[in-house]
Design brief:
homodimer; mainly alpha; Ribonuclease iii, N-terminal Endonuclease Domain, Chain A; 2 domains; 3-stranded antiparallel sheet; 59% helix; cytoplasm (chains A, B); RNA-binding (chains A, B); Ribonuclease 3 (chains A, B); hydrolase (chains A, B)
């Protein structure tokens, strides 16, 4: 079996157009006449819709904010890199020698991009239903339980990473008020950036209130 | 003809499930048992894919960065609000009295959200191809020419709006260098936020270089 056949077997899908598969596996570092960036653009939107619909149908009673939260956990670079391991995607990539020596085959960003590109290629050839079938099988194999609790994140850390990377500043949290009896206190915390209040939220502990405030900002950024 | 039939005629689509259409038209201000937020979540992803694929197929030779740029112009709140006018969507919304008095029927955000929700509802009932058919017709009626030049934006203004709203600060631009003969000078400008350099870019004028630098940051935020 040639290289492509191995991947096709792992995907349980035979590509009609092998050139399209090759394009999906080709990193821009190769400087070839084509690379997987356009297919990645398409595949990204395909997977956003598939995961969005999957969650919409699975959770009839959760609101849009929580649907977004769940999707963000499932369609991240990290998540796609994990899913890619099921089909050994890294080993099939076309990379430059430099990128190869730089451990590119194992970089989550490269593998995740190629994963999206491969799904984009299947979409172009065979349509949405075919990608759904292939992707959901991989997704459900990876995530034994898909729900808010299992996919919950440390929102403060996530927010700090974003503001640090983009603007070189760290958010600051401040206690606004606390109320209620000692055994059932409610804390209200606000999150600031550059002296500007971004959001405030309440919780049963300072930490819980901080996490909720950070989440509000993250959702606003997402929108 | 009842209310729904008028909208259905404008859309050239008859809903199988009128309750789903009603949900898509119901703003959360009504405090009804349902509102259009979940369908909007779904419709947003549907339209991202439809526009992404449309651009992917129409522009065989432009890179992923420019595909993203074009899509951002077409799928914005402003764009969807404009498209909604073709089907008089504002007049079909269910709003609270307060929102009604607050001119909610004409708010771009409300109308755009409902537009996404209506497309999400058609997707659930009739699938992707049906939404494509309906949406692309509306899109092509609105945009006589879809290309980078016609859809080009003022990126500096767009960036400033974002940083001001989210972080309370305005970007600062600084000349890094200029080179070349007087009639053919190249300017390199950098954009800073909080003394942190976010990006730099070159152009035939300071303004052009600033626009390019702002665009680099906008694309990074988008990603």
């Amino acid at each position: 079996m040639d290289k492509f056949q191995n991947l096709e077997k792992l995907l349980n899908y035979e590509f009609k157009d092998k050139n399209m598969l090759k394009e999906a596996l080709t990193h821009k570092s190769t400087k070839a006449a084509f690379n997987n960036e356009r297919l990645e653009f398409l595949g990204d939107a395909v997977l956003d819709l598939i995961v969005g619909e999957y969650l919409y149908l699975k959770f009839k009673n959760i609101d849009e904010g929580n649907l977004s939260k769940l999707r963000a956990a499932l369609v991240s670079e990290k998540s796609f890199a994990n899913l890619s391991a099921q089909i050994s995607l890294g080993s099939f990539l076309y990379l430059s020698t430099a990128e190869e020596n730089n451990n590119g085959r194992n970089k989550p960003s490269l593998v995740s991009d190629a994963f999206e590109a491969v799904m984009g290629a299947i979409y172009l050839e065979s349509g949405l239903e075919k990608v759904k079938e292939i992707f959901i099988k991989i997704l459900e194999k990876e995530y034994k339980s898909i729900d808010l609790k299992s996919l919950g994140k440390d929102y403060k850390t996530a927010l700090q990473e974003i503001t640090q990377a983009r603007f070189g500043v760290t958010p600051r949290y401040e206690l606004i008020s606390s109320s209620g009896p000692d055994h059932k206190k409610i804390f209200e915390m606000a999150v600031f950036l550059n002296e500007k209040e971004l959001a405030r939220a309440s919780g049963n502990s300072k930490k819980e209130a901080e996490q909720s405030a950070a989440l509000i900002v993250l959702q606003r950024i997402e929108e």
